[in-house]
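Re-run with default settings, no changes from the original entry. Doing this only to confirm the output is reproducible before filing.
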Amino acid sequence: MELIVFDLDGTLLNRHSALSEGTRDTLHRLAQRGIAYTVATGRTLHAARALLEGSEFSLPHIYKNGVMIWRPDTQHYSHSNLLTMDEVRSIVEGFITQGVTPFIFTVEPHDRHGVYHLPLQTPAEHRLADHIARIEGLEVSPVAELPFSADITNISALGPRHAIEQVEHLVGAEPHLVAYSGTAVEGEQLHWIDIHHSDASKGGAINQIRADLGVSRVICFGDSDNDLSMFALADECYAPSNAKDAVKAAATAIIGHHDEDGIARFLQERFEL
């Protein structure tokens, strides 16, 4: 069995964070041919569900950079790599020291998801809270309402570059944590960061799916640092022309831009769709 694995933002999705009609048509052709494919993304299930609906993503999905594996057939998670309370305290203290508000993402009984935050301090943090609630469809609440039964999947934040870099440096000294970061809003000098357990990676989750499904070959597509772990294990890996330089360097080949149906055009030629 050959499995195609897609990153979403900057790869399969266009600049409007949507699947183009050409991409949807290509996915439909893949499904008709019996070619297996799935998704490995930094998004949550809630933030990806509507985007993927109707495009036959029936195999296990990888969310939050490998923290969670979602099984569409059972409508439950099968694997997770969660943060410990000591790790959570260390991360939160680091953000407080830098004057940045952390957003704590959880999975709770009955697969309910929530996001909890300390007091919001800046207009950008208020916009982030609104984005999470409105776009990702998650309930955003004060940290005082965080239930004891909640498992913590990851912690994210938005802040000045120097503050985010300081937190990233702190995380780098912790043996069981990993952080991804980048520019959030061009021109505002804002950076984002997402922190989770180091056992979680797209590559690790793909290895789990490969074992579960009996996959013999993996072909993957990605554009950013969080895709390098799956590039390292893939039989073929492709970067759109908008990808980061490190990802391009690790790729089997560089293909078309994500906003010009680059992945869809490549797949049509590669599989003669």
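DSSP finds ten helices and 14 strands in the chain. The chain has two domains: 2-80+200-270, 85-197.
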